[in-house]
Amino acid sequence: TMTKTSVAAAPAALSWALCVLLLAVDTEAFHFASPHSPAASLSGHTILHMGMNRKARRQQQRRQTKSRQKEFYDVVKDADQMKDREVSSPVGTLSDEALERTALEEELAGERVSSELGGEGESVVSGASVADAVPDTDQRPDVSEVIVDEDTGILRVVQGENVKDVVTGKAVQLSNRGGEYRLAQMFPDVSPEKREKYRFDWTTATVPQMVEELSNVLEVNGKVLPHPQVSDESVDFVLANRDYLGSRMSRCLGRLKLRAQSQFQKEEALQLRRLWKKFLTIENHISAPFRQMVLDAEKKIGPNFGNLDLKSYCSGDVNERTASYLVLKGMVAHWEKKVKDAEYVESTPETTSNFLEILMVGDPRRYLPDPPIIYRLNECLSVCLMARNMTQAFVSDEDLYDDLPCEVRFVDEALKIKSGTELRRFVVEEFCPREQVTPERLREGVRRLFQQMHNLQVDPYGDLTNVIGRLVEAMAVGTDDESDPYLKYLASLGNDFDSNPGFFQTYTFDHDTLSLVSFLDRPTKDLQEGKVGADDLGEQLGRDLQKISSSLMATREEEDLSGQRKLVDDGPYQVPETRAVGRPHMMGWLELLGDEEITGGEGDKSPTKIEDESFDSDKWQVI
What does the alpha-carbon distance between residue 82 and residue 104 come to, in Å, rounded to a whole number? Predict the structure, then answer.
């Protein structure tokens, strides 16, 4: 049972804690946990079969499977899990429907993988999130909500039916004036007059200049609007420079904020933090219609996975077909990556020298006791082959594909070209003359597409986004667009404040004696010789998680920890030089902003003065 709460967001450590808690050690080999960081969007999940009874679902699935090729079922039968499913029982032979389906069968049916871990399992078009909450009923909220799990007291997200516009606080409203207007919402721009007024000269632009101009347009009558309000001028400014700002500007603002903080410049750090937050709000607001259209496309493609009659569910206005193509292409890129990872893991013998390397390849959720994903080679290959067939069927149908935006169709053709030189020749001599567009406008269009894709969920759209990013870089070689003012801020070319304008000083911490970090920092002889097994690391990891969960979860009963094994205090914490690498210890600048890191200095509280010494986190009540 879930109860709504008025909190705006989960604690910063919640996402990490949940992932570490779930990525536990199995009984045969120990595996390190890896945090699963959510992207900016909360909407990259397919909502399947909501509000339908079992009979209706079966009828719908029978209709969807009519057009699926025989080859699709041949692929399914080749999978290990698709062997003879009949089981004898005292009352006769159980039907397939009466038996629990495998994860592969759920994926191939376009549904989410079910898992005892709860949360949202993976589907062919969307990633898994074991930290998400699932409603007790089939009815989901209109937009995503943060709720409190009454069983644990943990804040969790319930995915909504629609994408939330962070500025209005309501579901995104798409234009009702036709597909061309909705396509303009999908890839927004400004008028030529506003473009002339706000757009940078990229050949001479610098980061300080961009930050200053962004800060100026955020003000209305000399004041910055309270969150989440944004000025029209600031939206126009970001739209005019969308291809130059986006994710790289966001990363740059984050580094500049940390740089000021590490130099104990609190006022500047607070100002940069507010600017960063406003910029992310504008980015989220601008990308919301795009994400809504992609979500709508996922809802159509997911349940029809394997159906090669693409017109029956992917036809529609140009914006709908564009979103469907991006979902299909993202699905191919994602599953090709999963096939590559699975092939490496299953074909590489595990040794002491490559053990960690194997652990870091692929989705770490495969080590969970009941994974909400599929990860074996034959399973991933089955999905990947059908995803390719569906995408090819879409591209081959001129009614579906031929009038998509030229930058979208360019991506499909460009991915078949192997060298950068050949790609640039293709742009200038073939594609641009054919489409009657200049190479400059094409490059800008692909950059804007890249920025929109960057606002989708990393899982499963991160692989396609990275590919488009590499296309952007290859197209820019030898042109004015090759200039990159962000490079010296983001590339870590220097290791001090003078040589690197994006540098901030990291430092080491005193870790709790019973923590996993402490356990690895003070290795025993067995650990150094590689003799530590899963039980040893699991025990240390469990103690670490116990401390985290005690601050995040509601404890119903007092737990007796008297029998827990304790380590001897070895005096002041000594960080191994191999990990410290000359960094200072316990500088403390991460706590410089105090509660401002949570509140952002908004509301009645002064951004530079905390009237109450206690933090909001100290006032939380166990639910």
Answer: 8
